[in-house]
Amino acid sequence: MSLELNVEKCMRCGACVGACPVNAIFLKEHSPAVGRGCTECGLCVNICPVGAFSLGGE
Amino acid sequence: MNIDQGDTLEYDVLVIGGGPTGSTAGRFSARHNAKTLVIEKRQEIGSPVRCGEGISLSWLEELEIKDISPWVRRYIRGARIYSPSGHVLEIIEDIAGDEVGSVIERDMFDKDMARLAAIEGADFMVKTAATGLLKENGKVVGVKAKQMGKEFNIMADIVIGADGFESQVGRWAGIYEAIKPKDIMTCFQYRMTGIDVDPDFTHFYMGTRAPGGYAWIFPKDEVTANVGLGVQLSRLNGEVTPKEYLDQFIAGHKGLRNGEAIDMVAGAVSVTHPPERTVADGILLVGDASRVVDPITGGGIVNGLKQAKIAGEFAAKAVSEGKTDVEYLKKYEKLWRHRLEDKLWRNYMAKEKAMLLDDVMYDKIIDALSDMDLRKVRVETILEGVRKKYPELIKEFEDMM
Ligand SMILES: Cc1cc2nc3c(=O)[nH]c(=O)nc-3n(C[C@H](O)[C@H](O)[C@H](O)COP(=O)(O)OP(=O)(O)OC[C@H]3O[C@@H](n4cnc5c(N)ncnc54)[C@H](O)[C@@H]3O)c2cc1C
Ligand code: SF4
Ligand code: SF4
Fold this sequence. Notes:
The structure holds 2 protein chains of 2 kinds. By secondary structure, chain A is an alpha+beta fold. Chain A is 17% helix and 21% strand.
């Protein structure tokens, strides 16, 4: 899994949760978590208003 | 209410989400004698605020709201719409449709909607999250819930999903339709103070400074406003974030540049066509969870409230008649569609057209419109005015008006 979340940036707004086409993200108590089924489509990376998600080996 | 691990509570109607639509659904279901509970996962109804706080006031009678003083912050005379090169179209209150009118205190607003529900007899539980649905033979009969580490069950004849854009309830019930990226706006906003903008107008900035969306300034007082922007998800590629677009917008705006940000808000809204389905056996959806945000403005409160009233009344009726199967609940869908669907479709089509405009087209259209006194004219006259100045533009819009 090369999807990474920067919890320092995350504002827990839920935008990524609502946008994920395969419902692979859920909001835990403090921040979103990526569960099974992620296709690495990158939508959560793009939608995040503050750029908290990143995909790939940066 | 004191909860113990493993408890089972029983209600007629259970609402998931204590936003404005959840409280309002609860209000009308309780009024019609259904034993109603609203659960909200956050510890405080209405906070933190995730909203631009701009709403019209044309719906108060329909929702039977008499006292708006707890939450109206500022009355607005009209809207100003700015083209990329600075042409301004001014729309004064009495001709603008919905979504111009006031700027509110959204946290007070949400609490007031809860207060109205409590007056009717609805129960509330905060810091209480639904974590899954309970089903019997495929029918939703309640939810698994969690409050401060304690897990318990809430049984209900009807569950109402009012859990917002990030809605899980609909997905758990199998009523999920993924929203197309072109129909999602992702937003970032600051509350700014020490700014210099006309505080009697809401301000909308079109064009590629907010690709596929717009930037807004909604004044709260003489020197304070919500300053935000929404971008179409399909126009983002992970390089420039909505926050960065907003920072650029502010840096380029002389009335904002020297202001101070005292709050930050992130979030998303759907600007999509009405959904295929909003019910399943034992469950119905309202508000952002059912995608009734206005596709042009991105405002979701007013449509959501109108729909929530219908949902609450209908849920109470269904419970009293003992009919909570999907076939019967489809009547709820019919009712809210009758109230909202025409305008949602019309505005969705208009939004699809507006998406085709580039900065040059926005400049031309807003320039042509700004020559007219919009207080006195009708849509046809507006089009005539644009036709005279830029005949080629009219084709795109003719079939829609
Ligand atoms: C940046 C931004 C600006 C906006 N500006 C405007 C505007 O100016 N005017 C306007 O009309 N609209 C605006 N909107 C849209 C508006 O905020 C929504 O349409 C409105 O909040 C919808 O109300 P709701 O009750 O459906 O959902 P919400 O207000 O999102 O409420 C859903 C509630 O459900 C709770 N919840 C979620 N999951 C669970 C669970 N599992 N268990 C328990 N509780 C749960 C959440 O905590 C939340 O409190 C804006 C949206 C954004 C993101
Ligand atoms: S990359 Fe796509 S599939 Fe994976 S979590 Fe993000 S949005 Fe969902
Ligand atoms: S969209 Fe970004 S800020 Fe919002 S919850 Fe997801 S990761 Fe956090």
